[in-house]
Design brief:
Layout: H1 2-17, E1 25-35, E2 51-60, E3 67-77, E4 83-95, E5 101-116, E6 119-134, E7 137-145, E8 158-166
Antiparallel strand pairs: 1-2, 1-8, 2-3, 3-4, 4-5, 5-6, 6-7, 7-8
Length: about 170
């Protein structure tokens, strides 16, 4: 009888102290806008400046933890008709778990691919940024660090994203 009472009290204690698990896997969508520091550096131009994009992301955040791992894909719509540009990212997120408005920082690796007519090119690069989430909505800004192969083209744009997360 003692074993049963001990087991029952252990089960009741665990049931009382249990915290509901939050969703660990998050899904979402976003819109993006490529911009840059062209107003400051007038001798540098960004051929993708003001390019609009749409994408999606999936993330894993352990319960009661301020960190997460995400994957994201964004397809952009450049103004020139024969140009295609997309990015795929894997990044880490470190946030402050505040109740309403949660600021966070992201850093990750990104694959950038573009094609102009029949010419294809792709490269990998790092990016870092900050954001803020309000419930399931988020706004973030990231700086992409690309290879500076061409001196008069801004290869390190700032990308602004806004979207939603479910989960």
């Amino acid at each position: 009888m003692r074993r049963f009472a001990f087991a029952l009290s252990a089960v009741l204690a665990l049931a009382i102290m249990a915290v509901p698990a939050e969703a660990q896997l998050n899904f979402g969508g976003h819109v993006a806008l490529i911009t840059g520091l062209d107003d400051i550096a007038t001798d540098v131009e960004n051929p993708l400046n003001s390019t609009f994009g749409v994408g999606g992301r999936v993330g894993f955040e352990p319960p009661l933890s301020p960190i997460g791992v995400y994957g994201s894909v964004t397809y952009y719509f450049p103004s020139e008709g024969d140009v295609n540009y997309w990015t795929g990212s894997i990044f880490g997120k470190l946030g402050l778990p505040l109740p309403v408005v949660s600021p966070y920082a992201v850093v990750g690796l990104q694959r950038r691919a573009s094609s102009v007519g029949s010419l294809d090119s792709a490269e990998n690069g790092f990016f870092a940024g900050v954001g803020v989430s309000l419930s399931s909505l988020f706004i973030e800004g990231t700086m992409e660090f690309n290879d500076e192969a061409i001196s008069n083209v801004n290869n390190s744009p700032i990308v602004l994203k806004g979207g939603f997360m479910i989960g």
